[in-house]
Amino acid sequence: MMKFKRWITWCREISRNPTKAVLWKPPIGNIRSLFSRSGKWDPQLSPETRLKIEEHWKPIIQQHDKLQSELTNSLQTADNEKCYVLSMFPYPSGNLHLGHVRVYTISDVMARYHRLQGKMVIHPMGWDAFGLPAENAAMERGIHPKEWTYSNIKRMKQQLEDLSLSFDWNREFATCDPSYYKWTQYLFLKMFEAGLAFQKKGLVNWDPVDKTVLANEQIDGSGCSWRSGAKVEKKYLTQWYLRDTVFSESLLQGLEEVDPELWRDIILVQRNWISEIKGHRIDLKLKYKSQDAKELPLSFYTEHLDLIYGVSHVCVKPTHHLCVEFDMKDIDAVLPIYAVHPLTGQHLKLVVAKEENMFMNRDVMLAIPCISDSDREAAERLNIPYVQVLDDTQNTLINSDELNGLRREQAIEIIRKKTLELGIGGEKISEQLNDWLISRQRYWGTPIPIIHCEKCGTVPVPYDQLPVKLPETDQLINKGGCSPLTEDKNWLEVPCPRCSSPAKRETDTMDTFVDSSWYFLRFIDPHNQQLPFSKEMARKYMPVDLYIGGKEHALLHLYFARFVCHFLHSLGLIEQREPFKNLLTQGMVKGESYKVKKTGKYIPADKVDFTGQCPLEKESGEELIVEFEKMSKSKYNGVNPEDVIAEYGVDSTRLCILSNVSPQSDRDWSNTVFKGVVNWQNRVWSLVTTIRNGNEAMHCSTAQEKLTEEQLQDWEDKIMETRNHILNHVNFHFETTFYINSAISRLHSYVSWLLKVPLPVAHKSKEYEQAVADLIIILAVMAPHFASELWAGLADVAKYKTHPWEKGVLLQRWPQIDDNFLMPLTYLVNHVAISDVGVPFKDFGNLNEEMALAIVKQDGHFSAQFSQYTIEKYSLSVRKFHKASLSLKIPDYHFQTEYDSKSQLKKQMLKLSKQKKKLYTIEQRSDSVRNDSKQT
User: Fold this and answer.
1) Cis-peptide, bond into residue 615, ω within 30° of zero
2) Which positions ≥6 away from 312 have C-beta within 8 Å?
3) Sign of dihedral through CA atoms 610, 613, 616, 619?
4) Is the distance from CB of 828 to CB of 886 less than 8 angstroms?
5) Nearest to 525, CA basis, from 277, 924, 183, 843
6) Low-confidence ranges of the chain (pLDDT < 50)
7) pLDDT score recorded for residue 112
8) Nearest-angstrom CA–CA distance, 642 and 650
9) What is the torsional sign of CA 282, 283, 288, 291?
10) What are phi and psi of 253, to 5 degrees?
């Protein structure tokens, strides 16, 4: 009886003030059981309930994701629109950090979004498993790198699965699997055949701790290794290189094919890396005492390929390895070795020259006295003959055989083609960019598939003998710059594939950047036993539609991946030379650190006194510097994702890491953000509670009697338009900007607006039920467990056939904008925004300039103010899924006849822009809701 009286009291209260219903809970007792299990709905969402929801739905969602992946794989030949969402695969360190959680949450959100759009989504995951960290860790622990790596993979895979990430594990591989690096070796051999994989001796960066060669990019500003921290030494070694410089021009041109907004910073970085292309490459063979030298050809950069017949000698820097080997470093010293002119066969002396007279990034240079004072002076000092090949008065070639009489630009093109035909260069390159050094003197990496024979020289391993597997050796310490593989004689010594004479394998392994330069191609065809990938699969799935990863990989990894794709495109193996359509480089997650101001010593949070106005060290009372920095054990500011998830749950953690800041920005991590996230989840929960309580409330309330059909229809229109308005913005961010945080912010406003809708409307409105349902579907891509429970609760009481309620939320279709919803078309006159007019959504996709102008001319404001003027020209700009703008130029129209200054003109234009008419917005709706709530 008492419960019934409390129920009547509650009904009377909401009849007097309906807006309190979402804030004041009916006293019907606490039910701590899940609706999906018990069929009973708890109006209050407790922390325990949130965790129980995830516990219940996690296996269901994992099974759903597995079936979706299997369905995608079974439809490989179907015509479904594809979407390839790829996050940079991780190094298997054994533990996820918050940076991992961030990038994989973003990729999961985008994959689920496109899957709900009905697309065939490829969302793979694998492991970048080779490299120094695993080898060093294994040596420290006395275990094999393979054992260490695979144990870490097992742990990290479980952590990823616990996050309910919708990865297609059927495509999984690790780069240390022979079934994968077989194809890395295959691609290396293709480059070797094309002359792009080669050896040369040079001065390299040597890490004395990790005992391996480092590329320039792996050294910090202090000259120390970015991994070991050791001071890098210089050493002369014969190393393997990939001639990526051949594709310099192609790689620069490719930057014109990507989205300039999404790639803006990366375009700048990569252009700077490649630098201006002003010269060409040309190779010259060497001779020693009239015999072909064992030395590999010297590769030159020259900006004067047309003057090739005017080369008198070759300049070498004192640091060049030949100067060191012959112990001849003095300026003007002539080395006892010759370079052979590629067109005349003339023997060219190698002369030690001053570094300041040569290119900064090159250790050899062609001497051309007719254009260089230093070259002419050196030739005259050393009695080296030279010829004048340039007629300065006519800017034409002389004394140059077939080039005589040609202008310089004509001569360059002829020599370029000739050197390309001879296979000695001719490609356009930059002075700054050097070839990619891939040799590493370590065990845990992809073996280079080359055999060295005394008779045949450098011989590629036959394709049918791939993979060249790593031996199961326990010897991991290298000696004197040689790989540990030199100690395994059974593996090392093999017969030559050509002459069967005793030979030796190449013992250097490849840099791990080689493994990761093409992994996205293997993901599309991971079980192919004949090829790394088929042309058909590449045609169907490439390019990657959205590539997500850290900013730190925006230079090297992206550059190398682009290079490999440009190479494969040149072979006709893939149709596009650019591998990634859209790029999202997410910022790092930073942790709060505490540093003693006087000493700079970092201390953990439990040693900080927070009671005063500023934090102090408990022990000394010293003032602390508090700032957000990259998470590090040494700074005591690391956060274990497992601890966060155990306290707040997966969905709240996902929402927290997606909210407030854009994915591209660094995130300052603080648990205080969870307060807002949890509060929002509670508000969304109350929307479903409102609908579920609708029938009971309407039976006991007289408020619905005051709601006329006209009022209800007015609310239906308002809810419909607001739902479409929000969906328009959410779609825009999901499709174009990838600002998931902005989409969430819109949803926050949306939920606040829906909570203010009068209860009689919420209980009776079809549009309100659809609005809440669409909200839950959108939420499902970000918080799948929470949304699944919300959907179950809503579907149980749904009154209208707006959705297939019998299906789970992850099997719904993404909400669609209504055909007649008016999309905003802004028109501008002489660069001043005048007004917004509406274009029905059904017509928006086909909008062109003529259609837009016709719609604008129908606007009353335009007719009153501009119809009598002649439009000189107009142009349309459309932002897909969002809005459009039409710019009109009317020379005879002036907003004000006279202005005292330019500043007054600017103020007037700004005022006009601010006054432009707007379509309904959610802010206007909020005022309308408040007013109508009072009336109802």
Assistant:
1) no
2) 348, 367, 368, 369, 375, 379, 384, 385, 386
3) negative
4) yes
5) 183
6) 1-31, 699-704, 897-899, 914-926, 928, 930, 933, 936
7) 98
8) 9
9) negative
10) -65, -35
Element (H, E) at 700: helix 694-700
Euclidean distance between CA atoms 900 and 119, whole angstroms: 58
Residue-wise burial string across 900-932, b where 16 or more C-beta atoms lie within 10 A, e elsewhere: eeeeeeeeebeeeeeeeeebbebeebeebbeeb
Cβ 734 vs Cβ 112: under 8 Å: no
The CA-based dihedral angle spanning residues 829, 830, 832, 838, taken in that order and rounded to the nearest 10 degrees: 30
Identify the CA nearest to 361 among candidates 281, 432, 300: 432
Q: Do the Cβ atoms of 567 and 196 come closer than 8 Å? A: yes
Give the Cα separation of 557 and 795 in Å (integer): 47
Q: What is the pLDDT of residue 705?
A: 54
- Compute the distance between CA of residue 134 and CA of residue 486 in angstroms, rounded to an integer: 20
Distance CA 830, CA 810 (A): 48
What DSSP letter does each residue of 6-39 carry, written as one string?
Answer: HHHHHHHHHHH-GGGGGTS---S----S-HHHHS
DSSP 8-class letter at 929: H
CA distance 33 to 39: 9
The token pair at 640 is 């274990």
Please tell me the distance from the alpha carbon of residue 323 to that of residue 307, in angstroms, as a whole number: 27
Burial of 220 (0-12, 13-18, 19+ CB in 10 A): exposed
Counted residue by residue, the chain has a size of 936
Among candidate residues 312, 450, 329, the one with its CA nearest the CA of residue 368 = 312
- The two structure tokens encoding residue 460: 């590629």
Tokens 């009489």 belong to 405
Tell me the C-alpha to C-alpha distance, in Å, between residue 678 and each of 61, 78, 681, 748, 783: 22, 42, 5, 12, 12
Q: Name the nearest CA neighbour of 168 among 91, 86, 59.
A: 86
> CB neighbours of 747 closer than 8 A, spacing ≥ 6?
726, 730, 775, 778, 779
- The alpha helices in 706-848, defined as continuous H runs, are 709-732, 740-755, 759-764, 766-780, 784-795, 841-844
pLDDT (0 to 100) of residue 733:
94
Tens digits of per-residue pLDDT, 753-807? 999 999 999 999 999 999 999 999 999 999 999 999 999 999 999 999 999 999 9
- Give the integer Cα–Cα distance in Å for 397 and 307: 8
Distance, CA of 536 to CA of 710 (rounded, Å): 58
Q: Is 615 buried (19+), middle (13-18) or exposed (0-12) by CB count in 10 A?
A: middle
No. of helices (H) and no. of strands (E), the chain? 31, 35
Cβ atoms 582, 259 nearer than 8 A = yes
Handedness of CA 927, 928, 931, 936 (dihedral sign): negative
Q: Which residues pair with 781 in a beta bridge?
A: none
Residue 182's region, left for phi above 0, alpha for psi from -120 to 50, else beta, is alpha
Rounded to whole angstroms, the Cα distance separating 933 from 695 reads 20
CA distances to 94, 247, 274, 530, 581 from 254, rounded to whole Å, are 37, 10, 12, 30, 11
- Tokens for 362? 């090159």
Residues with Cβ within 8 Å of residue 541, at least 6 apart in sequence: 82, 84, 122, 524
Spatial distance between the Cα atoms of 579 and 564, rounded to a whole number of angstroms: 9
Report the candidate in 238, 93, 181, 139 with the shortest Cα–Cα distance to residue 445.
181
**What is the SS3 string spanning 442-509?**
CCCCCECCEEEECCCEEEECCHHHCCCCCCCCCCCCCECCECHHHHCHHHHEEECCCCCCEEEECCCE
Residue with tokens 């191609």: 521
407: which strand partners? 396
